[in-house]
């Protein structure tokens, strides 16, 4: 079995096995065999329920968008990804390359993006990793780890295609008092908001870890979390870009527009 690990401070198919223990979330994703269709000089590979994507010039492969709810008041400490049995498909394939994006309304001449010669002439497995950590998002106060999982492996030069029938993701978490404070300020526990989160995540049964947190906002009611902490201007961004907006927030506040 292949074992991949990544450290961090922050941050399924139909048959999904999930377990939540103290400081750990475990999810198993099962994948069906890929369907491969010949389209012109290339082969198009798809797995039902997954999106197929690829950067311009790079092989287009199926990707599972994993959305894993983290336990309330905890952040990612370590991620383990454990692959099941690798299944090799018979035959040789030339997987279609990704194309440069163009507007849907564009009707003029369009030049197809050719395969990246360095990648397609290589014996190195592509994409070379089983998963990629995208980010940790917060929706209505619920913290969601987003991963891209790659069940298909392609060796371009030989045309060999293989896939994993199952992949298990094990997320180790640690306590984060500051994060819990933010969750308490933002958390929505009304039926509509909770339903939206449940539909989004892969482990809806684990939403119960948020049950003990006091609700400070109810959807449909104009409630201020803290009247003394109101502001005139809100900047919405992700954690990676947050430091870039600190200067702007300070500038606007000095100009009389309280900004957060």
TrEMBL record:
Transmembrane segments: none
Spans annotated as Disordered: 100-123
Domain of life: Bacteria
Coiled coil start-end: none
Signal sequence segment: 1-22
Gene3D superfamilies referenced in this protein's UniProt entry, alphabetically: 2.60.40.3800
Record keywords: Signal
InterPro entries documented for this protein: Gingipain_propep_sf
Protein name (record): Gingipain propeptide domain-containing protein
Upper lineage: Bacteria, Bacteria division WOR-3
């Amino acid at each position: 079995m292949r074992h991949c690990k990544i450290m961090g401070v922050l941050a399924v198919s139909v048959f999904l096995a999930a377990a939540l223990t103290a400081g750990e979330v475990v999810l198993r994703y099962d994948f069906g065999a890929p369907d491969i269709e010949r389209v012109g000089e290339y082969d198009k590979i798809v797995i039902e329920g997954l999106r197929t994507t690829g950067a311009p010039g790079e092989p287009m492969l199926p990707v599972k968008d994993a959305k894993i709810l983290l336990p309330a008041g905890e952040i990612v400490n370590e991620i383990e990804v454990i692959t099941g049995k690798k299944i090799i498909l018979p035959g040789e394939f030339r997987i279609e390359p990704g194309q440069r994006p163009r507007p849907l309304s564009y009707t003029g001449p369009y030049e197809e993006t050719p395969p990246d010669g360095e990648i397609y002439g290589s014996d190195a497995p592509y994409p070379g990793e089983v998963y990629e950590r995208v980010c940790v998002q917060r929706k209505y106060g619920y913290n969601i780890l987003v991963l891209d999982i790659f069940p298909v492996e392609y060796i371009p030069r030989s045309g060999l295609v293989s896939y994993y029938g199952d992949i298990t993701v094990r997320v180790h978490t640690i306590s984060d008092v500051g994060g819990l404070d933010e969750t308490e300020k933002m958390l929505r526990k009304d039926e509509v908001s909770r339903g939206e989160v449940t539909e989004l995540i892969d482990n809806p049964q684990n939403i119960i870890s948020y049950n003990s947190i006091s609700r400070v906002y109810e959807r449909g009611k104009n409630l201020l979390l803290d009247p003394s902490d109101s502001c005139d201007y809100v900047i919405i961004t992700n954690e990676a870009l947050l430091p870039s907006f600190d200067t702007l927030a300070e500038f606007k506040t000095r100009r009389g527009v309280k900004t957060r």
